[in-house]
Amino acid sequence: MAASGGTKAILAALGANAGIAVAKFVGFLITGSSSMLAESVHSVADTSNQGLLLLGQKTAQRKATKEHPFGYGRDRYFYSFIVALILFTLGAVFAIYEGIHKIQHPEELTSPLVAVVILVVAIALETYSFGTAITESKKVKGRKTWWAFIRQSKSPELPVVLLEDAGALFGLIFALIGVGLAVLTGDPVWDGVGTIMIGVLLGVIAITLIIEMKSLLIGEGSGEEELKTIVGQLTMGDIERVIHIRTQYIGPEELLVAAKLAMRRGMPIDEVARAIDEAERRVRESVPTARLIYLEPDLDRTRV
């Protein structure tokens, strides 16, 4: 569900941003607004980002090889990390640079009404894209807060699209405010101020995504509740306790579990094997993402 929902959100954002980018560039050529130029570059970056997210989903489906025995699931994390970098470099840095330039060398806007109309239409399209991302995210976030969902989600596409769309929507509002104030006051400096606001917003979102995607790319383990479930399923029957356990997501839907288990003393080897098999089965049923499980039986040497 997470993957299909993520794909739907990506496609909605891709279509919206591609159309918006063209409209914004036309608006910039007509008006000369730096806010419109910053938003145009932002939309081009977002459209490229959605293409990268789709590419990551595609390459992550490759089968495991001798060189990559655990598969290519982390491709989705890699391309999401690249998306965050692009959002920062092409979006935030360019917008801040253009805004400072506009404040230092203000120029009167021509046909500002065109910019306003384009921004209003773009806000409507971006609202649709953002609404799609929210709808698809609600299916998998459960009772978590939105911030917890962004921080804890192992599937990168929905958090990335969610934050991108939020940034795009608020960026359009900032651009509209900048153009509107420039028209109302007759001072084009406000257009530059709106552009800097867009850049700062994109910078905050990009840095947040870079931190989260870097953490996933390096390798994150199970959350507290999931780990508690795994340990609970392991410590049943002839398994007395978990001596130690390590988990790591090697892809959004693929969890690696490795544990050393203290077995009941005096068990025949066939009973040990059966207990291990049963423990694996219980974990897989309770945590479907636990696809790679390595369990090592041992004696509880803490007992006297």
Short summary of the structure?
It is a multi-pass membrane protein. The protein contains 9 helices and 3 strands, in the order ααααααααββαβ.
Question: What would you call the shape?
Answer: elongated
**Domains (count):** 2
Low-confidence region ranges: none
Distance between the termini: 49 Å
Mean pLDDT: 86
- Number of beta strands: 3
Reading the helices and strands in chain order gives: HHHHHHHHEEHE
Radius of gyration using CA atoms only = 25 Å
Biggest beta sheet attributes: 3 strands, mixed
What is the CATH fold-level name of the largest domain? Answer: Alpha-lytic protease prodomain-like
What structural category arises from helix and sheet content? mainly alpha
CATH first level of the largest domain: which class? Mainly Alpha
Helix content: 55-70%
Would you identify the CATH H-level superfamily of the largest domain?
Cation efflux protein transmembrane domain
Instruction: Tell me which CATH architecture of the largest domain applies here.
Output: Up-down Bundle
> Can you count the helices?
9
> Which strand order does the major sheet show?
1-2-3
Which percent range describes the beta-strand content?
5-15%
Describe the structure.
With 304 residues, this protein is mainly alpha-helical. The protein has 2 domains: 2-218, Alpha-lytic protease prodomain-like; 224-299, Alpha-Beta Plaits. The protein contains 9 helices and 3 strands. The protein has helices at residues 2-31, 34-59, 75-104, 112-141, 146-152, 157-185, 189-218, 224-234, 269-286, and strands spanning 239-251, 254-263, 290-299. It has a 3-stranded mixed sheet. Helix 8 (224-234) runs antiparallel to helix 9. The chain is elongated.
